Amino acid sequence: MRFSGIRIGFALTGSHCTMDQVLPVIEKLRQEGAEIFPIISPAVAETDTRYGTAAELREALVRITGKQPMTTMVEVEPIGPKQMVDVVVVAPCTGNTLAKLALGITDTCVTLACKAQLRNNRPVVLGISTNDGLSGNGRNIGLLLNRKNIYFVPFGQDAPETKQSSLVADMNLIPETILEALNHRQLQPVIIGYTR
Questions:
Q1: CATH number for 37
Q2: Residue 195: its pLDDT value, please?
């Protein structure tokens, strides 16, 4: 099992339309031996959408991981001093979270989990899903691509005809990105032709 003994802090932020791509990946990681510590942003913890309710998502995470999701800054703070996880994954990672990480803003459990991990020179993997990746958040992606210990799940334009600035990671590449990140390497190519 490729992920036997690997501890993953897996954070989900509010790109609700992408959850159906991420949950099967979490399940696959679990089946391959990873221990998953789920983390959900306030938007995920509190918002019901046409894609499902917050309660349904929480139940799915508990079923898949066997753990209650962490939802507060107090719960995730020990990730740093206790070195609780080997890697933190944020997927889907919204433009809002991208911007905060790029600017060093730590105001949610997800951004604190990343900060706690980075303080120990440990990897953070970002699976982006943002409508403004080639506009307002282009600068932030550039900053984070150049940041030590931050690795991107390869991404591309998911709807270039209708949403020209939108970028989404190929969530199926999360496992390979994690394995490379644990070896301090970025999975290549970073920019891909997106297919869902």
A1: 3.40.50.1950
A2: 66
